[in-house]
Amino acid sequence: MIIVVKAGATAEEIAQIEERIASYGLAAHVSRGVERTVIGAIGDERKMQAEAFEGMACVEKVLRILKPYKIVSRDFQNEDTVISVRGQQIGGGTVALFAGPCSVEGRAMMIDIGKQVASCGASFLRGGAFKPRTSPYAFQGLGEEGLRILAEAREATGLPVATELMDPRDIDLVVRYADVIQIGARNMQNFRLLTEVGRLDTPVILKRGMSATIMEWLMSAEYIASEGNRRIILCERGVRTFESATRNTFDVSAIPVVKGLSHLPVIADPSHATGQMGLVEPLAAAAVAAGADGVMVEVHHQPETALSDGPQSLRPEVFREMTARLKSIAAAVGKRLGNA
Amino acid sequence: MIIVVKAGATAEEIAQIEERIASYGLAAHVSRGVERTVIGAIGDERKMQAEAFEGMACVEKVLRILKPYKIVSRDFQNEDTVISVRGQQIGGGTVALFAGPCSVEGRAMMIDIGKQVASCGASFLRGGAFKPRTSPYAFQGLGEEGLRILAEAREATGLPVATELMDPRDIDLVVRYADVIQIGARNMQNFRLLTEVGRLDTPVILKRGMSATIMEWLMSAEYIASEGNRRIILCERGVRTFESATRNTFDVSAIPVVKGLSHLPVIADPSHATGQMGLVEPLAAAAVAAGADGVMVEVHHQPETALSDGPQSLRPEVFREMTARLKSIAAAVGKRLGNA
Amino acid sequence: MIIVVKAGATAEEIAQIEERIASYGLAAHVSRGVERTVIGAIGDERKMQAEAFEGMACVEKVLRILKPYKIVSRDFQNEDTVISVRGQQIGGGTVALFAGPCSVEGRAMMIDIGKQVASCGASFLRGGAFKPRTSPYAFQGLGEEGLRILAEAREATGLPVATELMDPRDIDLVVRYADVIQIGARNMQNFRLLTEVGRLDTPVILKRGMSATIMEWLMSAEYIASEGNRRIILCERGVRTFESATRNTFDVSAIPVVKGLSHLPVIADPSHATGQMGLVEPLAAAAVAAGADGVMVEVHHQPETALSDGPQSLRPEVFREMTARLKSIAAAVGKRLGNA
Amino acid sequence: MIIVVKAGATAEEIAQIEERIASYGLAAHVSRGVERTVIGAIGDERKMQAEAFEGMACVEKVLRILKPYKIVSRDFQNEDTVISVRGQQIGGGTVALFAGPCSVEGRAMMIDIGKQVASCGASFLRGGAFKPRTSPYAFQGLGEEGLRILAEAREATGLPVATELMDPRDIDLVVRYADVIQIGARNMQNFRLLTEVGRLDTPVILKRGMSATIMEWLMSAEYIASEGNRRIILCERGVRTFESATRNTFDVSAIPVVKGLSHLPVIADPSHATGQMGLVEPLAAAAVAAGADGVMVEVHHQPETALSDGPQSLRPEVFREMTARLKSIAAAVGKRLGNA
């Protein structure tokens, strides 16, 4: 940690900073420049609070040298984490394909869509039983019934299922049915929920918060990892910006950036990133070209009657074409696509 | 709701839109312009899903006429909501002053700070027992012990206490001690938590999410109100932007905008908005000048040793000066300041 | 244009709106709903100022039906614009490759880099003679000398050259040397400059402003087109967001969105979007996968001594590898890459 | 400057960094920590390019210690700059009031509005002769005729006039008429224009760019100051964010932040920040409460027929009420308001 002292700080003030650094068990290293005095704290800066110095009147700014996350960083583990679930793989040269309706709306539709996406090469079925909705008056999901239907769809297709968990009180229930648990963008900093899924064995998809920096996203992954669960899949789904032509701005750069900083696999959700079916395919292609380990898309047999997210859902036949395109892109970057 | 149809849509497609509008019980009103056909849906558009139309291939865009929230809007209730708690008032010409440490760190400090802020004119004591922290390795709050200390501080000062609730599993516990429950920015769209506090009588401070639009913020208030609890206090605490000179960008315009759209009181939290003690006073002054019904500030007797948020905490003597300044500003806009 | 009237507006106020619509030569169409009265203006809404209605006390909001740009829209021209310059093509199935140093620093380096990128398949040489720099103390470009060197590099490589124009007073000079003129992000709304390049025949690359919406970007293109010059190439180069891990956030969605709205070709500049050489290749790949008609990258033989933009410049050998990768991606989306 | 070296960098690579630092005339100071080696460059870091190090493969990040601007900083000049123009003052305890129509639309209206705002206590008249408009089809200003009318309004009211300059080719013309030159938000990084006004004596209002950081804004001020003109007035006018309820998000914190970093006066433009007449007064009050040295507002006798910015223009009678309110707020913060 580097502490930049204001011009005109007294020797006493500087001594006070040195003492505080020593109290954390680190060594202080004072370097007097022409315009500013700079104090380096040598040792494990994670033990110190930057805030403890920022609150001092004589301090101009505090610069961190190390990253605040640890277990999820490349420094901690250099080789890529590869996650296997019921024979399906995420990371390690395989681009996983998660597909299915936004919400589980009923048994027939779920099994029907499940079979169709399975036949196109999907590796995981997705479907929401608990839905976070902006409006209290909108459809909130089928709850446990939805979970039971998902389990039936797994039987019918042979594919593992992924579904969202919103509330720590639902954990036992969701774990009973889900092969992969999804933490939605709005819950990326629901720290109590992260701690709970950190105690499970089930793989967790951690979506990036709508306005989360990459550092905060990795810190949320660290919450899960620090409790023991290291089967974490990061999912870029667009961030909020001033642009209103798309629902969110898909941050494609986040894919190579995160893969540089962390060993965890990264997938992309172009459906939520854009909110428009016509943009899903080009963005899925972009994500795979940029190095994503998977793509999650919403598929519905009748988007215009979907109980949620219709405008961004693909018809199965469009999904099939997209899969063919993604297969070529994956090959161009030296990977292979799910079961396609 | 206005549905703009793409140039070149067929008569059949237009008929399909009309049918769908009728299926929701609204009347369709087709208006053929030179370049576009526009269809208005006459009736209560809240019954219809915009998505149901956006998913149709022939639809260019869907424009809403009405606001998606209802109970919290000025259309529903024109006069200002005024909230009273143990003799303290929020709204209706009174600028409430919430003050106290970020976290409850111990009995002595809490009571000491409580007495000091009470003597300066604070109307509510604040202090966190459950702390949402970006890092799993940081101090997470004293939990129930912190709540008990808060209750003692209430006895010692006579001021009602406000504290944060993070997890639906803690509701019974928190309600036992708190006079006002705070929902933090990261939980603004934790819909299950909103539903739960909606079933209480305790007033709720709903902080604006880091990247929440004003519309989403009011929709979250609607979640609470739709369950029955209408004692809601909105709190602007800065939004996330590209500017890095301050932790967040305090959206002072949100105060008059929200007061125009809703009857609920709006307060401001300049401590979290800026993260810097030197900016708290000018922003608190700005908030009151812009029409805020209250201000919430962090006060600590020794900011440089605070377990959280030290850099943005005011020393009690600085808080005292700020209070004097706010009193004049409140007078200039025709209001009076808490107990000052 | 749709004008939503506030609840409680008088018949007189509504009549006043109708009159004003009529004064613009459009027909007013009043539709009284349960909660709001809505007035449609039938005719060419581009003749009316939305502001003229927004300024009225009885108006709640004004919704536009038509797009404010015309010549650059798909409504005006449905088939893709394809631009040819000295035998090189942009659009129409060809992915153009613009490459070269950020700044022209000298004759030898420019010709050397030019030959290297030409041998890898670049279709255009880029190099700045006039440099917009955040600091007045930084290198500002070689000016006319830089332009002369560019022209020499064109002779040496056979490739057309693209360079930035910053000031209307330099037009005659720049036109004398450049095959393609570049308008930088900071000048996207320098309307006087746009008007001037609109009067030329030279193709213009119009970079998207750092915080420009897609609509504003197209309006700036309309400025150029409305003066007569329709040889416009749009260039996505990242927008400003809260994320600080990259210099800008590359808005890959903008590529398919713009191609849906406009017939103009769209290229991508991953060098400026990220500011980091390690991210240039994955983003270039993403751009081509998403449908870009070209890619512009900075190449320097010694990035660590470059006078500007070193950290984001590729070494020629890295550029060569990138070109090979892009060739496969272009093939996967049914296109061919520049001269590669 | 602090250079953080990647884990695993070789001794040779570190020596190379030291050499490069020495080549700039600074001293290198290597500090080997447990996880990272950190190299400090002691001396005037403004002579070094951070880029020169960021481009090296072994460098993880580069942290600046000093601010990149100089003349406009408090380090360079500690006492506040106070600007006087024809007897009117900006800064130094006076809150200047700039008022007038967005565009000069004609002689009668300009003189009429001028007299009205003068009688309410305005200290400067504003009015645009050259208008930057998003659409090429919108009113672009009266040009020289507008400037002549402004000069007449100055005669009629005794107030100095401020007007926008958009193009370096118009400088001689504008200087002939204007007492204060305004550089609009879209031109904040039009570096050629900044250099030109830097060579004048006329005071310059430098509006903050729509997505400019405070640091970039001060760097643009440095462009002007470095050419000699130090009569610079900074103007906050809102930044672009995701929030769409207001045209821009008024960054009220920027006022105290800039006043801490720079000696230059700072004013606020609540009209452009919000785009809505109903928000102008609360935001003007907030700006003065937060420490602004002035306020610039658009006033029009008939906002609904204004050729530009009608929806955000105040009627003279509303301006009069606002002035009374601002007078009290100014007094509450120990200042006095313009001529009121």
Provide structural commentary.
- The structure is a homotetramer of 340-residue chains.
- Chain A has 340 residues and is an alpha/beta fold.
- In chain A, 34% of the residues lie in helices and 19% in strands.
- An 8-stranded parallel β-barrel of chain A has the order 7-8-9-10-11-12-13-14, surrounded by 6 helices. In chain A, strands 2-3-1-4 form a 4-stranded antiparallel beta sheet. Chain A has a two-stranded antiparallel sheet with strand order 5-6.
- In chain A, β10, α6 and β11 (204-207) form a beta-alpha-beta unit.
- At the A-B interface, α2, α6 and α7 of A face α2, α6 and α7 of B.
Task: Pick out its properties.
11 helices; 4-stranded antiparallel β-sheet; homotetramer; 8-stranded parallel beta barrel; alpha/beta
Quick rundown:
The structure is a homotetramer. In chain A, about 35% of the residues lie in helices and about 20% in strands. By secondary structure, chain A is an alpha/beta fold.
Q: What is the percent of helical residues of chain A?
A: 25-40%
SSE order of chain A in H/E notation? EHEEHEEEEHEHEHEHEHEHEHHEHE
Oligomer: homotetramer
Which pair of protein chains has the largest interface, and what are the residue counts?
A: A-B, 46 and 46 residues
Report Rg of chain A: 23 Å
| Mean pLDDT value of chain A | 93
The geometry of chain A reads as elongated
Major sheet strand order of chain A: 7-8-9-10-11-12-13-14
Alpha-beta content class of chain A: alpha/beta
Number of helices of chain A: 11
Distance between the amino and carboxyl termini of chain A: 49 Å
Count of β-strands of chain A: 15
Strand proportion of chain A, as a percent range, falls in 15-25%
Largest sheet, strands/sense/barrel of chain A: 8 strands, parallel, barrel
Q: Regions of chain A with pLDDT < 50 over 5+ consecutive residues?
A: none
